[in-house]
Amino acid sequence: MSVVGQEQGIDHGSMRGYRQHTYRQVPATEACGCLAAVREAQRTSKPVKERSQKQREWYGGKYVTAASGSQPGRRILPPGDCPTDGCGQEATGRSEPARGWVRIHVQGSTMPARLFCAGPCATVGIALAELRMATPTSS
Ligand SMILES: [Zn+2]
Ligand SMILES: [Zn+2]
User: Fold this and answer.
1) Is the pTM of this model over 0.85?
2) CA of 47 to the centre of ligand 1 (A)
3) Whose atoms come closest to the Cα of 32: which ligand?
4) Domain spans, the chain
5) Which of 18, 24, 41, 46 is most exposed by smallest CB count within 10 Å?
6) Which ligand gives the minimal distance to the CA of 118?
């Protein structure tokens, strides 16, 4: 049985009540006290702390070289180390790469066409392909 649209049973004047309003799609009003409860909760809660914790996980994690002291920038990762899913994979078929992807194939290279995400990865991809130039056979 759905409670959507039912106001009866809402715990007015609290965040819980406000969530019930949202869930039940019953508008919260000043009269029932739920809007005031939300304001109070926003005032007393510390979303900044929560956000900085997430930022620490992001910046402090594997995405940044530790103790470099330099400006955080875009890290150049060797293909395979790129966190982007599918970066460096062999390009199958002749279809155009998706938006933001670069298809790298250097003529004469033994490396098959690969897909890299645009930017540093594609640059590294070209360099790799150039390193794997097929040596011309004299026979
Ligand atoms: Zn209410
Ligand atoms: Zn990449």
Assistant:
1) no
2) 23
3) 1
4) 15-60, 74-139
5) 46
6) 2
**If you ran DSSP here, which 8-state letter would residue 110 be given?**
S
Tokens of 38: 């939300």
Angle subtended at Cα 83 by Cα 77 and Cα 86, rounded to the nearest 5 degrees:
105
Question: Could you list the pLDDT tens digit for every one of the 139 residues in the chain?
Answer: 789 999 999 999 999 999 999 999 999 999 999 999 999 888 887 655 555 666 665 555 444 444 444 445 555 555 557 888 888 889 887 777 888 899 999 999 999 999 999 888 899 899 989 999 887 766 5
Ligand nearest to the CA of 81: 2
Q: What is the Å distance from ligand 2's center to 86 Cα?
A: 8
DSSP label of 73: -
- Pairing verdict, β 89-90 and 101-104: unpaired
